[in-house]
From TrEMBL:
Domain RING-type: 63-112
PROSITE patterns: EPHD, ZF_PHD_1, ZF_RING_2
Protein name: G2E3 ligase
GO cellular component: nucleus
Keyword field contains Zinc: yes
Residue ranges of the TM segments: none
InterPro entries, per database record: EPHD, PHD-type_Zinc_Finger, PHD_PHF7/G2E3-like, Zinc_finger_PHD-type_CS, Znf_FYVE_PHD, Znf_RING, Znf_RING/FYVE/PHD
Sample GO molecular function, one term: ligase activity
Gene (name only): G2e3_11
Protein origin, superkingdom: Eukaryota
A Pfam family: PHD_G2E3
Keyword hit for Transferase: no
Keywords, ordered alphabetically: Ligase, Metal-binding, Zinc, Zinc-finger
Domain PHD-type residue range list: 1-48
Length: 204
């Protein structure tokens, strides 16, 4: 094992020509990534997949789960949601969250995106159990709104012909959620945001 130096390492880096091997328990210490889908590939620290470049978070950005500070860029220990690009968290924190949530309820803690978020997390080595039973917080009816993503335009004057509830994947009627609270939204055209990647509501 290139991490601990002991024998019995059964995971070899998938990169052609790389002979680094490691134990599964040593993966995190060696900043390796193991993918728990498809071919179940493993990668050493040098050849592991990385997240796309995103805007650098502000200095006081904290992990949405533990509320401790995160690094100022995506790294092995710091990850970001690929959908909203504003939800930052530690690898260990999002891994713990996924183990509690299971594949049925594992979503971005901020924007509630499921599809792009799950694809990116498993690509980056986050293990998501295929648990079909909903976790306790999903089965509770105390706070049903926590399970829903905001889906309406809150602009003072909504210009969309289909109304405030209509939302498209792109274009003038794409619904942008507040990058800070995700509790308010607006169509791009309703707030003149044709060329803006993110939007923040007046409350934030």
């Amino acid at each position: 094992c290139f991490v601990c130096g002991l024998s019995g390492a059964t995971i070899t880096c998938w990169q052609l020509g790389c002979n680094r091997s490691f134990h599964l328990p040593c993966a995190m210490a060696g900043e390796c990534i193991t993918q728990y889908f498809g071919l179940y590939r493993g990668f050493c620290w040098e050849h592991r997949p990385e997240q796309e470049e995103v805007e650098t978070p502000e200095e006081d950005t904290t992990c949405l789960i533990c509320l401790d500070p995160v690094e100022h860029r995506p790294s092995y220990g710091t990850m970001v949601c690929p959908a909203c690009k504003h939800a930052w968290f530690h690898r260990s924190c999002i891994q713990g969250h996924s183990m509690c949530a299971g594949i049925g309820c594992f979503v971005c803690p901020l924007c509630r995106d499921r599809e792009r978020f799950q694809v990116e997390m498993v690509r980056m080595g986050i293990r998501v159990p295929a648990r079909l039973v909903r976790p306790l917080w999903e089965r509770s009816h105390t706070f049903p709104a926590l399970n829903e993503r905001h889906r309406r335009c809150d602009a003072r004057e909504c210009l969309c012909p289909g109304g405030r509830e209509q939302a498209e994947n792109e274009g003038p009627w794409q619904l942008l959620l507040c990058c800070s609270c995700a509790a308010e939204g607006t169509h791009r055209r309703c707030s003149s945001l044709e060329s803006t990647a993110s939007w923040e509501c007046s409350s934030c």
